[in-house]
Each structure stands twice: as structure tokens, then as C-alpha cells.
Design a protein that fits this description.
InterPro entries: Arrestin-like_C, Arrestin-like_N. It holds the Pfam family Arrestin_N. This is Arrestin-like N-terminal domain-containing protein. The protein is mainly β. The chain has two domains: about 15-190, Immunoglobulin-like, CATH 2.60.40; about 205-300 and about 305-420. Helix content is about 0%, strand content about 50%. It contains one helix and 26 strands. It has one helix at about 225-235; strands at about 15-20, 30, 35-45, 55-70, 75-90, 105-115, 115-120, 140, 145, 155-165, 175, 180-190, 205-215, 240-250, 255, 260-270, 280-300, 330-340, 345-350, 350-355, 360-365, 365-375, 385, 390-405, 405-415, 420. The strands form seven sheets. Strands 2, 4, 5, 9, 10, 11 and 12 form a seven-stranded mixed sheet that branches. Strands 17, 18, 19, 23, 24 and 25 form a six-stranded antiparallel sheet that branches. The protein has a four-stranded antiparallel sheet with strand order 13-14-16-22, with no helix packed on it. The longest helix has 9 residues, at about 225-235. The protein is elongated, with a radius of gyration of 32 Å.
Amino acid sequence: MGLFKSSKHVPQEPLPSLELHLLDDPDRVFKPDETVAGHIVLTTPIPIKPQALEVTLWGKSETWIRTEHKSENSTTYYHYRDHAPLFDVTSNVAPKGETFVPGQVYKFPFGFRVPAGTGYERSGIYEKPQDGVWTVGPHNLPPTFWHGARVDGPDNCSISYGVTVRLTPPEVVIGKDNEPISCTAPILFQPLNPYAHIQVPNLTRQDKSFSRQSSVLAGQEPSTLGFRQRLHDRFSSATPKLDFTLGVELPDLLTTGSEFNFRTTFTVAQRSENVAHIPPITFKVVKLELLDFTFFRAPRDWQASNTMSGSPSKYRDKTPRGKYRADDQVNFEEKKTLLNAVPPSQVVELAEVEVPGEKKMTEQGLRCDAWFTGRVPGFTPPSFRSFAITRSYRVKVKVQVGVAGKEFECSAESTDCEMGSVHT
């Protein structure tokens, strides 16, 4: 028979109940200087006299990166974590020294103004505090943000905001760690758009040169050219020849959920004397993409165990144990979102222009262009640069241009674009 002993564990008494109610819907997106308001409901099955009933509006940045080192029979994991507070504002809403008794429902209203930026400074936290990818000084608050495969998995980063209420000790705690009773309501945040006053963004231009040699430029229809004629055109110095440049102009400023315009251009660089006519130019957008880049970093978590989860080890503290894998870890990920271009294609003719001289004569101009429109998805977070997380964007386009019966492709990628918020 087995030997059993009675447990000496004493069941915990019934605990007070806390409810946190926000006045706004959970999907409300707050912006700077707006008010987060609500009320707390407290009931208790036993008389209590806590130190305080504290309500905190907070914002924080968190990153978790995991690397692994494999040997013949085992895998060792190294964890890098960063928990950076952005701000916290706390208010004690309970009357000092009051005793709360069973049978009563206590309500406490609260309200906080959402700040515009963080006043914290973290130059002593990271290995390379001057790295321009991030910032370590005070800056505007970044938007609510999440990047990663799983919430409970490694290689993720987040910017989060919320309201937390705590019934502080000494009288009422939960579990062996003596945690105060608390509850939290997350909120969504986006900063104001600092570029809202810019109506027309700058365009960055990229060019590529091509040549077209064909009898089509002498006025023949492409459908009438047989194999021999095409072969002759290719190698004969008498074939009409056109040197031209294709250009793509992309914006350096975007706005979440809004349209943006970009332009493609055709410019004649040089043409032989026997070029009689340049047929209409066909511009077609083959592919339009929004590229997003996420950079996040974290210092070594010396307290973490070497398991997959990296939970705190009771045998370790936060003191560095050596230089092995002690440097900050950095992750970089790029993702692409396919966009639609409107219209998908355009046919443009070179305009006739007057030739200077006594006689009024015209000839084909040297340049034509076509404008296209794309739209940024509404779920796209604004670009930002914070302590350990940075988000940036670029636009990439592949254009096909038909010139005298032949298609030429040109790809272009913008410089880093600022992505503004919808809030102005």
C-alpha cells in the first residue's frame, strides 16, 4: 500500500473582485492629448483596508530574440530580451484609510491624458547606443505594434499601451509571489501625422537607358515585318535607331490607408535621321509592392535559463557571467505587400511640338509620361524609430514599356519612405 500524507496547504480565502471599464470601445484608436477615461468596480467578500487602489496608464516596448547553439547531443538556447517603459502615469483613486466591506459595490472614476512622447533615456542599456537605426533619447510615442510569428514564441517585438488597476498589499495578494490583485485593459494608440501639411510629396527618380532598332521607326507596321526583315534590322547599320531613357518617380512620403501617385516617363536621348515616327508608347505596371522593414534589438538576458522558453533560472541573476554571446542581438525582417496600380496600363503618344524657324513646322516631342495610383492598406502601422524597435517602408515597382513593337522592363525601388498616421 502507498503511504499518503495530508496536505498542510491552507485554502486561500475568497478574494476581492476588480473590474475595469473604459468609456470607449476596445477598437477605439487614441491619439496624443486625448483622454482615456473609465471607472473601476470593486466588491469584496471580506473587509479590507488596502494601502491604495492605483490606476496606471502605461506604454511599453518589448523584444525577445532567441539564438541556438547545437552540439552532437543537445541544443543550447541563448535569450535576449528588452523591456523598455515608454511612460506610466499613476493615480490612487481610493480614499486614504477607507475600509471596504462586503455587500457594497464601490465605483471609482478615472481619467488620463495620453502623452505625445516618452521622456525616458536609455543610452546605458544597449551595446551601440549611437546606432542611427534606433534612438535612445526622448522621442514621439510609436504606434501600437506587433511583429512576430507567435505571441508566446521568440523573435518577436511589440509596442503596447493599456490601463492597469492594482489593489496594493499588504492585505490582499495572490499566489506564492504575493502579487497584488490587478486587471488590465489594453488600448490602441497612433501618433499624429507630422507630415499632414505636405500636400505633394517629393519624388525620387531612377532612370534606365535602352535602344530600339527597327523598321517600325520608319513607319512600317510591326505585323508586316517578317523574320528576314527583323534579322536585317538587327544587324544593319542603316536600320532606324532610337536611344531612349525610361524613368520611374516614386514618392518619399506615404499615409496609412491613403492613395499615392507615381510616374513613369519615356525620354528620347538620341535618334537616327531616318526615324520617321515613334509609335504610341505603352506603359504597364507589372508589379507594385510595399516593402516593410522591421528592425529590433535586445541585450542578453542573463537571468534566463538555456531552455527553449528561457524562463528565469533560480540559479542565475542579471549579472553578466562573461563575454561569450554577451553582445546585443539584432533581428531584421522584410515583408512585401502586393498593391494594385490604377490604371494597370496606359497608351501615350508623343505630342507634336513646333520647330523653331520662319516656317511653321511641327515634329514629335522628346518626352511623354504616365501617372499611376496605388493605395496603402489601412492596417499598415506608421513608420517609427524607438528604443529597440524601428519600422520603415519602401515602394518597389516593375514597369513594362512598349516601344515600336518591343517591350522593355524597368524596376525601381524608392528610398526609405515616411509612413504617416491617419491622425492629423
